[in-house]
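[scheduler] slot 2 assigned
[scheduler] job type: sequence-to-structure, two independent chains
[scheduler] chain ordering preserved from manifest
[runner] begin chain α
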Amino acid sequence: MSAEDDDVPETLATYLRLRGLEPSPRAKRRRRRRGNDDDENQPFAPGRDPKGVGDVLDKLTHDSGWDEPMARADLVRRWAEVAGADTAQHTRPVALADGMLTIQCDSTAWAKQLQLMRAHILTQILQRFPDAGVSSLRFIGPDVPSWKWGPRAVPGRGPRDTYG
């Protein structure tokens, strides 16, 4: 017994021990003995419950760094849910680079209409697929040939001025 134990009356010490606020000397010995055992071999130790297949696969994809590629694939696969069935019939995602999702439309009218709905569609994407890394949207019309190649093309008449 320490000096502190002498100051506390026996009835108060018993009360504290029964309320679990102060462990009994016997519990200290038990805890000390139990601490030497290997936790993973104890049958009812915390963390020993079986895990579901979905939880195991989520942990595997997160640990492997596959969250972003899988979210991007899910976004393309579920484009009809994000944009709506009617809109998805006339559009399709074609590229995702540097956070910009490029969506090709059947006509320039569809591209212009979707530009007006850009905030709503981007909100849907960010809510459903936050790991995809989409930060902006770009809507393009039908695939037509162009003299402009790449994002850093020089403005001007282009190759026509070299014909004569």
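[runner] end chain α
[runner] begin chain β
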Amino acid sequence: MRSDALLTDDPATPQAAAREAAAQEAAARAVDARLAARLGELRGACGWSLDELARRSGVSRSTLSRLERGEISPTAALLGRLCPVYGLTMSRLLGEVEAEPAQLVRAGEQSVWKDEDSGFVRRSVSPPHPGLRAEVVEGTLRPGAVIAYDAPPVPGMEQHIWVLEGAVEVTVQGARHLLAAGDALRFRLWGETRFHCPGPEPVRYAVVVVLP
């Protein structure tokens, strides 16, 4: 085999890195397109107009319309408003537009979703699966980033937050908790939550979600 062919196939080469980045971007666009279609299907199944969904979710009609047409990418804030309306966790919704997860989920096969606006990266470590009540999610927030949810997608669901690196300020129904690496916070969720990375480093944490 020619040496230049070996260099071309080496994943460390710029060409291979560019192909990998292009493949990841294409996969992300495909997920966004399926997600847009699924959101339209959910609204249709409920028999709601865009105006009705806007009233229930607090998201403007024009934003919902553009979202369902795939003209804008969904953000964590948008999904945080829509998931409770449909009674779904974010993982359940994203899981519906991804391939059925296998029993063994290799690190390289775990789906990653990024919200560039908020600086939030979400890795589905152990995706939701029919017949299983728990799921594991890894979250990463850049310094200064904030994500907030007005209500849980399923009232009374159980959450366990374990900080792996950095620090995060978690506010649960008005009670504020500053967690450092190694700290854990557990609760049943009935109201709003807010995650804030105070910095100076990014924070990486695991969330275990258990449905009631």
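[runner] end chain β
[qc] chain β: Confidence is low (pLDDT under 50) at residues 1-8.
[scheduler] slot 2 released
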